[in-house]
Amino acid sequence: MNRRRIQSSKRHTERITGSEMRKLPAETVEIGRLNRLRVLRISDAGVWLDGKDRGELFMPRSYAGINCVTGDDIDVFIFPGSEGEILATTKRPYAMINEYALLKVASVTPVGAFLDWGLKKDLLAPFSEQKEKMEEGRSYIVYVHLDERTNRIVASSKLNRFMNAQAAGFAEGQSVDLLICSQTEIGYKAIIDNTRWGILYKNEVFQQLRKGQHLPGFIKKVRDDGKIDLCLQLPGYAQIGDAAERIIMTLKSRGGFLPMTDKSPSEAIYHVFGMSKKTYKKAIGLLYKRRVIAIEEQGIRLIGKA
After folding, report:
1. What global pTM score does this model have?
2. How many CB atoms lie within 10 A of CB 143?
3. Do residues 215 and 191 lie in contact, with contact meaning Cβ atoms separated by under 8 Å?
């Protein structure tokens, strides 16, 4: 057995015995996604992988960023090369297919803009896929997808083409992943779980948000017209309980007293507790009724067991 190594870190590897290798069922390799593939052999040029339904796949040494030996299962990103060949790399792009991301234009050519997506070869955004003409050095929110006509992974800034028009599957209070796309007069437009649009209202946001930022959020309301309102804090009673616990923990870490009242500025409350002033007032009201805190003229004091 060839025990030569590709030297680097040891992340994303798993040693497999010969008997286990024969038991793994044949599966389909997903283009544009991470796949766990087995190392068949290693040469000076690179690594040969079991590409399942694609046969053997070659990963050049320059694409291999892990330490592996024959028999290892490793996580690799699979993508089509410029000549139609299937390539593998242990490097992870900033976005995979069916995902949105903020990517920077590395260059503009006669065929389109090429975006830096974290791999050696830049990602093409054809002119036909550009909502506005892309300029070198600028960054754009794009959708990464597999072009069925060319069988290549490309980027598109025509985002609405790929959005799910239905709000089915979302419920109030549901935890979701958000990608901030733009700021409007009423708040921030965000993409929910790589599927559809939602809005964060600016009067309910108490932190700096930037275009391209990923952060957790919650479904606040699914409207009758299908549009979705978002929030960054858990809505309803569950939020108040979570906020109350956070206030108690902060009080304990600050010696049992905080110079914070219901008259304190919203920005100061968010800076200390990470919650809105409205949520803070409800939470301290709950703690006061349970005789956990005392509300004094200069602040709040921890007095009971919590």
Report:
1. 0.72
2. 24
3. no
Buried b (16+ CB within 10 A) or exposed e, 67-83: ebbbbbbbebbbbbeee
Residue 70 DSSP code: T
**Structure confidence by residue, pLDDT tens digits, 156-172:** 999 999 998 666 688 88
Please give the CATH architecture assigned to the domain spanning 175-231. Answer: Beta Barrel (2.40)
Range 99-161: architecture per CATH: Beta Barrel (2.40)
Measure CA of the first residue to CA of the last residue in the chain; give whole Å.
Answer: 61
Instruction: Give the type of residue at 88.
Output: A
Q: Tell me, what DSSP letter sits at residue 286?
A: H
Section 81-100 average pLDDT? 91
Same fold, 175-231 and 237-302: no
Burial class (CB in 10 A: 0-12, 13-18, 19+), 158: middle
Q: Poorest-confidence range of 31-35, 99-103, 133-137, 234-238?
A: 234-238
Q: DSSP label at 204?
A: G
pLDDT tens for each residue of 57-82: 999 888 887 788 899 999 999 999 87
Render 230-275 in DSSP notation, one character per residue. Answer: EESS--SHHHHHHHHHHHHHHHHHTTTEE---TTS-HHHHHHHHSS
Identify the pLDDT of residue 285: 87
Please state whether beta strands 257-258 and 300-302 pair in parallel, antiparallel, or not at all (unpaired): antiparallel
Q: Which two tokens stand for residue 171?
A: 């419920």
CA 41, distance to chain mean position in Å, is 34
Amino acid 264 reads S
Amino acid at 171: A
Q: Tell me the CATH architecture of domain 13-89.
A: Beta Barrel (2.40)
Instruction: Name the 3-class secondary structure at 219.
Output: strand
